[in-house]
Write a structure and sequence with these properties.
The protein has 502 residues and is mostly helical. Helices cover 40% and strands 5% of the residues. Helix 2 packs antiparallel against helix 5 and helix 7 runs antiparallel to helix 8. The chain is globular and about 65 Å long. It starts with 16 loop residues before the first strand and ends in a 10-residue tail after the last helix.
Length: 502
């Protein structure tokens, strides 16, 4: 499937010229930001720059931090793997809840604040653009507010109590106040309420704008935020959002679960938001990891020294727990559609083989494994340039959130069951005794089965109040909900940051 890829590399203070496509750009000479935003073309380029950090978590600022992987190593679904217990030590420590201010996913702090900075620039500078069409202005502002909310959302989940600013500081030493997680929640919701007030965001985007936010994408982010906060006062609002998405008729479940993760599955009828990656732009390299291009995540989790006609090899990270694979019924197409059992793979391809690495289980994340030819168009560093998109929000999540909210608010049990069993029906090809009653326990389990290795499980355990029960033997306690703030940030803050009690 053709992708409209995404975001050219720009600095925090300069931007690039526009090309014919909204989501492509080419570097030009540096222009001071104060003098730059004087046309629709240039404020749009600022918006492109605000989207760019969506691509960075997999490899940026010297660390591997794919959001799915970072989240799942703290769950009961996956291990870290790699070469040994010190390989990517920040992830190894996060798995056993003994991270430190030195060994933690600190590059994500920089990634997300880069996105916040860029979003703020758009919001601050848009009034400098003369004669901007009001509808265009509303849309750009809604996107910038949603992007800022997304970046703060991840800071909020990972660290909770972080510095907050919605106007970029202009004078040294650029210190901003730290606020509590609950205060940050309110700020995130304010951004999303602004974006979703009225019809600022479109229901769909043009084919040359695939990758831009839609109203449904912002609604999914608001729902995820409210659900993680367990904010009962907002349940009715986000239930209305979910039912509005369902009611549009724009989305549906694809018949084949395995197909979602192939090229043909990108931006399919159940995709609400994805972060695009492409192998046909060769700017991304080890020397320039923030340039536009592909993803290193498939290489990271690829099977070591693999010989297979279907999948390419990689570095052997993220071995999958056998218990996760065994939790599926045999008839559930998500079992082998989302997880690769090497024993099963070898039955299909007897010539297949690999060399196990540290903590190997024989099970792998099929959703994002590198496919043969998945970086074939890249003229640069191929390990960095797989074209697997990051699937952020899928329609199945809309259905399961709606079902859960009906249960939590005492709404229609019949409708809650219908939403749950639509997801289960796809999993079982609508055959057999697949239907279940929508209860909180059943929904927690269904979330695990549907979104395995997509970075949901740990956060679901926390918000359902089950993390200590499930992960306690590995070291989780309630104070482990938020990671230690990176020591580098503590040092730079000149005594203005309070460390989390991790």
């Amino acid at each position: 499937m053709k992708k409209i890829l995404i975001f050219g590399l720009t600095s925090l203070l300069v931007l690039s010229s526009c090309t014919d496509s909204f989501l492509e750009s080419s570097p030009t000479a540096q222009i001071p930001k104060e003098e730059f935003y004087n046309s629709e073309e240039r404020i749009t380029q600022g918006l492109i720059a605000a989207y760019a950090p969506l691509q960075w978590p997999d490899w940026a600022f010297g660390q591997y931090n794919p959001l799915q992987f970072v989240s799942d190593v703290m769950s009961d679904d996956a291990r870290v793997g790699g070469g040994n217990a010190k390989d990517n030590e920040h992830l190894q420590r996060m798995r056993f809840f003994n991270a430190t201010p030195v060994y933690v996913c600190d590059a994500l702090w920089t990634v997300f604040y880069s996105g916040i900075n860029r979003s703020n620039i758009v919001i601050q500078r848009i009034d400098d653009v003369p004669n901007l069409n009001p509808a265009t202005k509303d849309r750009i502002l809604a996107e910038a507010h949603t992007l800022r909310a997304y970046y703060y959302f991840w800071l909020w989940k990972l660290w909770g109590n972080v510095p907050y600013y919605d106007v970029n500081p202009s004078t040294p030493p650029f210190l901003v106040p730290q606020i509590t997680a609950d205060e940050l929640y309110t700020k995130i919701i304010q951004d999303l309420d602004f974006a979703l007030d009225g019809d600022k965001l479109p229901a769909t985007v043009a084919s040359n704008q695939i990758g831009r936010l839609t109203k449904a994408g912002a609604q999914m982010l608001r729902a995820n935020t409210v659900m993680y906060q367990n904010d009962e006062t907002r349940y009715a609002v986000v239930l209305k959002d979910m039912q509005a998405i369902i009611g549009t008729g724009l989305y549906d479940l694809t018949a084949s679960f395995a197909d979602i993760w192939e090229d043909k599955g990108e931006w399919n009828k159940e995709s609400i938001f994805e972060v695009n990656y492409s192998d046909d732009l060769s700017g991304r390299s080890w020397g320039n990891p923030l340039a536009t291009g592909g993803s290193v995540y498939p290489t990271l989790i690829g099977i070591n020294s693999l010989k297979s006609p279907e999948f390419a090899g990689g570095w052997g990270f993220e071995p999958v727990e056998k218990a996760l694979y065994d939790s599926y019924q045999e008839a559930d197409q998500r079992k082998d559609g989302g997880i690769l059992s090497f024993d099963q793979h070898k039955k299909e391809f007897p010539e297949a083989s690999y060399d196990p690495r540290y903590d190997d289980t024989g099970f792998f994340n099929r959703k994002y494994l590198p496919r043969q030819g998945g970086n074939s168009k890249s003229a640069g560093d191929k390990d960095l340039n797989y074209r697997n998109n990051y699937r952020v929000y899928r329609f199945s999540e809309t259905l399961l959130i709606a079902s859960e909210l009906l249960v939590r608010t005492g709404g229609s049990q019949t409708l809650a069951d219908e939403y749950l069993n639509k997801v289960r029906g796809r999993a079982y090809n609508n055959t057999g005794n697949y239907k279940k009653v929508a209860t909180l326990d059943n929904l927690l389990m269904e979330n695990r089965l549907e979104f395995a290795l997509e970075g949901h499980r740990f956060w679901d355990l926390v918000r359902f109040g089950k993390a200590e029960q499930v992960l306690g033997e590995r070291g989780f306690t309630p104070n482990k909900k938020h990671l230690p703030i990176p020591q580098s940030e503590i040092d730079k803050a000149q005594g203005t940051l309070t460390q989390n009690p991790y």
